[in-house]
Amino acid sequence: MDPECSQLLPALCSVLADPRQPVTDDTCLEKLLDWFKTITEAGSSLLLLQENPCLLGLLCHVLKPQDLSPRVLAFSLRLAGMLAAQEDCFQYLQQGELLPRLFGEAGPLGGAAWTAPSVRSGWIQGLRSLAHHPSALCFLADCGAVDTIFSLQGDSSLFVASAAGQLLVHVLGLSLQGPAEGHPGLQTGDWPVCAQKIVSHIEESLRSAATPQITQALNVLTTTFGHCHNPWTQVLWVRLSPLVARLLEKDPVPAAHSLVDLLLSVARSPVLSSSSCGLWETLAQTLSHLSPTQAGPLALGILKLQECPQALRAQAFAVLLQPLTCVLEATAQAPGLLDSWDGTGGASVTVDTLLASKAACVGLLCRTLAHLELLQPLPQRPSPWPQAPLLGATVTILRLCSGSATPTSDAGGHLCAFLVGCVRVQRAALDFLGMLSRGTGPRELVTQVFAVLLEYLTSPDSSPTVLKKAFQATLRWLQSSPETPGCSDLDPHAQLFLRELLPVLPKRLCSPCWEVRDSGLEFLTQMIGRWGGQAGFRRALLASEVPELTEQLLRDPESYVRASAVAAMGQLSSQGLRVTPASPEHPGGQQKSLLAELLHILSTDSEGFPRRAVMHVFTQWLRDGHADVAADTERFVARVLQVASQDLDWEVRAQGLELALVFLEQTLGRPSSHCPYAVTPPVAAPPGPLAQALRPLCRVQLFEFAFRALFDCDRPVAQKSCDLLLFLRAQTASYSGPQGSGSVPEVASVEAALQRWQAGDQGQPLGYLEPEVVVAVLRSMDLEGLRGALAESSDRVEKSPQSLLQDMLATVGALGEDEADCY
Amino acid sequence: MLDCGLDMTSTLNFLPLPLVQSPRLSNLPGWSLKDGNAFLDKELKECSGHVFVDSVPEFCLPETELIDLSTVDVILISNYHCMMALPYITEHTGFTGTVYATEPTVQIGRLLMEELVNFIERVPKAQSASLWKNKDIQRLLPSPLKDAVEVSTWRRCYTMQEVNSALSKIQLVGYSQKIELFGAVQVTPLSSGYALGSSNWIIQSHYEKVSYVSGSSLLTTHPQPMDQASLKNSDVLVLTGLTQIPTANPDGMVGEFCSNLALTVRNGGNVLVPCYPSGVIYDLLECLYQYIDSAGLSNIPFYFISPVANSSLEFSQIFAEWLCHNKQTKVYLPEPPFPHAELIQTNKLKHYPSLHGDFSSDFRQPCVVFTGHPSLRFGDVVHFMELWGKSSLNTVIFTEPDFSYLEALAPYQPLAMKCIYCPIDTRLNFIQVSKLLKEVQPLHVVCPEQYTQPPPAQSHRMDLMIDCQPPAMSYRRAEVLALPFKRRYEKIEIMPELADSLVPMEIKPGISLATVSAVLHTKDNKHVLQPPPRPTQPTGGKKRKRASDDIPDCKVLKPLLSGSIPVEQFVQALEKHGFSDVKVEDTAKGHIVLLQEAETLIQIEEDSTHIICDNDEMLRVRLRDLVLKFLQKF
């Protein structure tokens, strides 16, 4: 510990021990504990105590009957536990009987402070830290802590209850660390007393009729099997699995969610899943006993397992598919391949659940669709994957939701009544439909998919979120549709769909709801990015009103929409899809250029999003050599950098640096590639051409922009600028100007100006700089040092322990002063 | 009578009434029978395969055959759309009763009627067709004329004089005001949330409650929200006036309306919105107020053309107490509750009584025109349809759900302008009805038959019907339905002095009884117990007051008895009074006490006691008095 901190610590301890000076900020105490943790992890706790007797004083002091705040008491318990984690320190504290007084019956346990959840939590966390050596186990047994932990499992505070469960798992693991690890065959009867006590408690809880107790036991076991993969866990499972299996005999199965978690935790344990301890049978039994809603997560968990018997996987998949089978049957469609997966005979239960109530139906379908969506991309997903029936079921669900399906049975009628207009199911089904685009399907079904998507995109009843999902799913399906051989254009089917879709898009772009306009524009941008070069798409797009409307949305009142419109217009223009018709406001077709319009947005828009979007578009344009930019690149870069340098949004300034870097690369060549086959650009240009090459950079005042950014108050901007200048310096390494660097008088004045900038006075511009001056200034600057300083977090000073102690003392001191004033 | 609506769909069978001579309409060919007989060609004209009556439009009146409307005492009006037939009833059927409605209902109803009369009267048509109504001829006509019902009862529009006379019979009421109807029932209007001043009605007696729910909305629009709580505990809830387009969500439709409007105007086209001069138009204007800037439509003029446009826009601003909470609070700022005031102030919205006059000089295109009538058969809308129908740049957007837009457009075919159907009906849909019924829990629901089954075109949509328990009782046209409750109790008031004289006796804990001797006085369906007249004083003279002749004689009544006889104590009392040899036998219904010596038998049962003795009246009286000692008398 620093001597400065050692000096401050006694004062802080006395403040903490003083009930008249309450610590109001919990985070300070947390930070203090973090600090102690780093100290104890790095060195001896005993030494820490001996060197700082005030800590011991604090621990002794909190035991006195007084009106101490629960925060400080909890802190002290946690600190004591942390210190006692090292056995020698534990013994030292034991000598003074301090630990039993803190954690035993005589401590806060029996007092009024115990009513505060933070004290109970501190007690548990203290013991959790303490329990790291065999002596600790004896201590726990002696002070009767295990029984208290048992009771805390049912604590009214969920945090306390959860921590108690975890502590129990930790103690069990600790007690078995020595004996059971040495002898994996050791039966539970031979386990240490403490472990036996815990196991008996779990058994008792599992036998209990009360669901909360069963849940507690199952949660402890879930954590145990999830964290401990020692051989003794197998012995434990063998002993407890009959009790777990017995839970399935009850109707309804108690604590089903916790049971599922436990079984999956066991199945994932490398120790248990490989052995034949009846696990697969239990899982199969559980699948058939749980209700469809409860069985879904278990089925998904089973299907995610790397290794698992094929029959069980088939059963699990059948459980997952059942609701969709019911949907297909209810709408008088052949379930197709889904039939072959249905081997559990639980269909009637699923139908009952689906038709029980709207909430049950919606919940089950949403969960099923979400589970299948998670399963679809996994390599271990069931094979053959029933792509076609799944597509059919999803399309049917979407049509039931929109009211366009025509169910022929009573069950179908009920489903229709439940699902019509249900946004939750629509969202889940559209997500899953999008995911299904990864696979192929029969042409007829794909047609149906596009038809249902078009229905959703057209329907005035589609909510903004549903519409967004429909756009996303549409994009995915369009991307997955096969390209016409040899033509790299969309296939005729997709083209037909586009022809129907494009008339819908203008209506969406005119929607009174900004979210709809925004998602319409995002969709458009992605479409152009993907198919902007293809003739069929270009024809369809140019024949629609979309490009014109998009341009009008640059003036939308909603900033998000303006930003999306900027991105879309950037794409349209890049692909040569911007139309410039003669309009009443611009007779003769002399429309304002998009570049000017975007520059106007960059310099005047009051919101950051559109300005950032403009910078992205400009950077992309520069990179791609957009015609408007290529006409006069220097002028373009100069104007953009000038506007960006004055922007209040740091992201705009940072993007300005990105643009500057692109310009730099285009002027000087890319940073050297490490690829051995790449053509290596010259490491450094010879003096003459380099000076010439630097001249355009000087003309666009790139250096002024970069130097200003170097001292930017926002660290990411400064870092980016530093990187850019370092790259530039590397490029000019071999350059030696006509005169020696530093001999130019301008260099000194630039350096002086930069120093003023660094000090915060950025008023004076640098003006035009000669390449030689720039190179000299770059060489004279300690850019590496600056980069190092910027890499450190900005609160490095404030985060130091000394600062923390000072802050805490100052806060309390200030409180004291206030009191004095008041007095 | 509940409501008094007018079926205006009959007008769809007629040719439109153009404001100025329309060569197209006047040159339509006459219709002739298949055999070439052209005797109807003056009355019927053919347009794009449809046949129309070339005459002044006529309306289908409420059923007048089933009951004699002169016997109707009261008409309760729910909203201004449901009173359009009122002049036909009040002026031509001998109706002498009272009509109850809220003030905005009457004022806006007057505007609607005034507009209707104005639309029809300002283009007088000399020709009146009646030949086609002959039943034998009607059979020969093509659909839909062939299938039109009760054409003989169709009537021309009423006059302004009749409107004024009808409106003068209306008594204004406020929400939650209790109105006594002949002492028999009390009626109360409640806010229904659908339109300014729209009401549901509660009709209740002391022991029965019937709710009439018509044209209600749970959406947050301009009117005061629907009062649901007061509908609770109804014996019967009569439910009508649900949305006509249950599949169209009003929010989605408003979005469609705005998008299509913007697209048309951006392309240089005009937008025509056929509408009523009040109601949804307020919400549409509010929506456009927020939308036009975002859509870049700030420079596009909006025109509202109706003979009552000005009154409608101004009335809406003054009915503060009938508005939703947000709008009410604006009034106290003070600000106009509706933003159309600002639209007018900034010249974005202009209103005109007709397209003649100022409008002609102000008219600028592209523009948006709101005008009537939504049937497209009369009003300024006819002119705009003729004017703009030929260009595909223009769009007509239907927002009123009352008329089939395809039928409305039929006489304008072929039509190049775009047609968009965005029906905005804010009235209850079936999901909202289910929630409402769950909340209100009436014992019985009565509704039109159409609500109890899915629409014929969407027979699978089980969600588009009323689903309640017990199932709703349905009715169809001209069907008489007995409501499932009987009046079993009447409330009777007791005069205070009579109440004072009562001496209640507690016969069981918490239950007291008292005998009442009084005169039941019934007048105006109210029943009052008054003290009985004092026994007539023996005057001794000949003169008796005339009034006392009417008072019925009051006999001195024997006291009523209650309680039960404890047998053991009764036996002890008998023995005390000298009866010996008393025997008690238990029977199925009670006990028999035998006095063997006296050859007397006392039969004690739960509700009677008999003393059977052999002609010994003295003994019977003694025993009776003994029995009475154990009973309470009052």
Automatic annotation (TrEMBL), chain A:
InterPro entries: ARM-like, ARM-type_fold, BRAT1. GO terms for cellular component: cytosol; nucleoplasm. Keywords: Cytoplasm. GO terms for molecular function: ribonuclease inhibitor activity. GO terms for biological process: apoptotic process; cell migration; cell population proliferation; DNA damage response; glucose metabolic process; integrator complex assembly; mitochondrion localization; positive regulation of cell growth. It is found in: Cytoplasm. Belongs to the BRAT1 family. This is BRCA1 associated ATM activator 1. It comes from Panthera leo.
Automatic annotation (TrEMBL), chain B:
Component of the Integrator complex, composed of core subunits INTS1, INTS2, INTS3, INTS4, INTS5, INTS6, INTS7, INTS8, INTS9/RC74, INTS10, INTS11/CPSF3L, INTS12, INTS13, INTS14 and INTS15. The core complex associates with protein phosphatase 2A subunits PPP2CA and PPP2R1A, to form the Integrator-PP2A (INTAC) complex. INTS9 is part of the RNA endonuclease subcomplex, composed of INTS4, INTS9, INTS11 and inositol hexakisphosphate (InsP6). Interacts with WDR73; interaction is required for the assembly of the RNA endonuclease subcomplex in the cytoplasm. One of its GO terms (biological process) is negative regulation of transmembrane receptor protein serine/threonine kinase signaling pathway. Belongs to the metallo-beta-lactamase superfamily. RNA-metabolizing metallo-beta-lactamase-like family. INTS9 subfamily. Keywords: Cytoplasm, Nucleus. InterPro entries: Beta_Casp (IPR022712), Integrator_9su (IPR027074), IntS9-like_C (IPR048660), Metallo-B-lactamas (IPR001279), RibonucZ/Hydroxyglut_hydro (IPR036866). This is Integrator complex subunit 9. It comes from Panthera leo (Lion). Component of the integrator complex, a multiprotein complex that terminates RNA polymerase II (Pol II) transcription in the promoter-proximal region of genes. One of its GO terms (cellular component) is cytosol. Residues 281-409 form the Beta-Casp domain. Pfam families: Beta-Casp (PF10996), IntS9_C (PF21382), Lactamase_B_6 (PF16661). The gene is INTS9. Gene3D superfamilies: 3.40.50.10890, Ribonuclease Z/Hydroxyacylglutathione hydrolase-like. It is found in: Cytoplasm; Nucleus. Its main location: cytoplasm. SUPFAM superfamilies: Metallo-hydrolase/oxidoreductase. Residues 524-549 are annotated as: Disordered.
